[in-house]
Design goal:
Number of helices: 13
Shape: globular
Radius of gyration: 18 Å
Distance between the termini: 48 Å
Strand content: under 5%
Structural class: mainly alpha
Largest sheet: none
Oligomer: single chain
Amino acid sequence: MVTDSKIETVRMWKKLKSVDWNEAYRLSRDGDQHVRMFLCSALAEFPCDKSEQLLIKHIDDASEWVRSVACQSLGCFESADVADKLVAKVYNDENSVKEKAFLSIAKIASRLDDNKKYVDFLYDNFEVQENDAVKSSISCGLAMCGDGEHFQKLLDSLDNINFQFRNIILDKIEVLLEYANIDKQKLVSKLNEKIKVERFERVKEHMQQILNKINL
């Protein structure tokens, strides 16, 4: 199968809400990174032992982008073992992978009764990570776990002069909408303030999309 056909096969699983696992294992070995990326993204919708095994395999993929998507998709699980495997990725990988790994660690931690180890890990790494996008992922993760100060750090990042970075922050804020412990009134106030002065249409549209999703 050519790439488009393989991707359409995976897309069909999502429509049917059922995975052909023999085909999934075959596609996990495909030489095209785009096929492996699409597979890893789709597997987030089918959390089970088989998808976990495939995603764990791909956090060590040769492609940085496949590793990043695999780390992101592992956030759908509720397992300390998965979180521990993601912890290892933040020590020796690219920043794009670290971003997704930190967020997924936080998502898993927010669902665990005993999450102190992971929350402490996030706090410790906020102090030592140097990349702004990675640090914003950690702030987002800590906000998921109820830290209002780090939620404010995300909101303050909307003042960044780089419009692409502002858009990255909006992506992370959008992830937070499903978490009841964030101050949505404060978020609405900040977005209404920024949308009036935002010069880039794409960022302004993103802000409006978030405002439309918030049900106060």
